[in-house]
Amino acid sequence: MSSTELPSVPPTSVLPEAAAVRIAEGERLRSVGLPGVTLSIRSRPPARAGLPPALYVHGLGGSSQNWSDLMQRLEDVVDGEAVDLPGFGDSPPPDDGDYSVTGHARAIIRYLDAFGRGPVHLFGNSLGGAVSTRVAAVRPDLVRTLTLVSPALPELRVQRSAVPTVLLGLPGVAGLLTRTTGKWTAEQRVRGVLALCYGDPGRVSPEAFEHAVQELERRLRLPYFWDAMARSARGIVNAYTLGGQHGLWRQAERVLAPTLLIYGGRDQLVGYRMAPKAARTFRNARLLSMPDAGHVAMMEYPETVAGAFRELLADTDERGAGDGAPGARG
Model pTM? Predict the structure, then answer.
């Protein structure tokens, strides 16, 4: 579709309440059509009008549901939305099949530009952390603050527990996994994911576990599920090998937005040892180390993550009010 065929405001439709994807109480889910991509956007009504916008970006294999708890805890300070990246959650695959970190970042930028949401308080977990870093580096005008939970930034020595995720990006491995794990139940798969991603899987309530099983069963029925997983994993691996100005660490150096870095001591996918390097690389960063957390601290300890962001927000607003910086509201 050419740009001349697009309406001035991209089409938006509210997904029906009966949609298979889970919509928590107070949440709204809508589908947004953009050039080359359709995105599902999860949101909660802000506590009052005029709050600054926020956007939450999930990790590999995740969805906008990963942010529901945190989004609810911050609804009094930001106007929050969480996106399903192309091929994940309730978003269909991108038209061009591009699941690279750059491809995902391009989708985020298109959404923010189309709806005039920027500058936003941008949150990213894992893959979403790499995507958000790239967005903040190439489009600083779109990012007010940056909060990264276990961001997937290149490591010289990948943790052994993360090797299967890396291997998923190799050609043919997704098909092999589909064949070799075909008899695994959704419950078995979810337990494995929780053991990998949580510092303490026991923190997951029975209700949350059941919701996760239902969501995985739904997504396993999608014909593009494994392809989206494999291509996005390959995108992370490829991003790790990029050098020069396109390297993720080089881009991290270019981020201007105040940055909150959150690392879990029990993270089996992103090395806890990378936290000091990240704190040195992002020029305006603060670090929250959580020894008991795993890969998804915003799901395990949403109250702690929310408190750290509130401090970032308060300090950012105070500095903005002091120097007359634009957009320092909230």
Answer: 0.85
